[in-house]
Write a structure and sequence with these properties.
about 140 residues, mainly alpha, 6 helices, about 75% helix
Length: about 140
């Protein structure tokens, strides 16, 4: 479903991104890492790759949680609350996958990351702000 988006990310990510575009690229990178694990589930080094992908995804979401919990964050309260709830789900799913690995469990994490990244890439009249400030 997201094959073209993942391939596009792999081929076109730029190291000079800032703000929302950077956050979209990082979430896309998480999705690519998780998708690579899912697609290569039978590989000899899957345990190491899965650990790296889950750890990276967890660090990214921990950063987002910190930003969302910041009282000075100008994002609407309802959106912050919804994203924090989503981040709790991601934490629970991550721990579940660590305890009981299965490739199909990665799909929801991949989809969430890609959907939020797509939303961050939508251009609007606002300046290029961070997810914590303007998802």
């Amino acid at each position: 479903m997201y094959g073209n988006q993942l391939n596009s990310y792999r081929n076109n990510v730029k190291m000079t991104l800032t703000g929302r575009d950077l956050e979209a690229a990082v979430l896309s990178k998480c999705a690519v890492m998780l998708k690579d694990c899912q697609d290569g589930w039978q590989s000899d080094d899957i345990s190491s790759k899965l650990n790296n992908a889950l750890s990276f995804n967890q660090r990214v979401w921990s950063f987002l949680q910190t930003e969302l919990a910041n009282p000075e964050n100008p994002m609407p309260s309802k959106l912050k609350s919804d994203l924090l709830s989503l981040s709790i789900f991601i934490d629970k799913r991550t721990f579940d996958i660590m305890a009981y690995p299965a490739p199909e469990k990665l799909t929801v994490l991949i989809n969430i990351n890609l959907n939020i990244a797509a939303g961050l890439r939508i251009k609007n009249d606002q300046p290029n702000e961070s997810v914590a400030a303007a998802v």
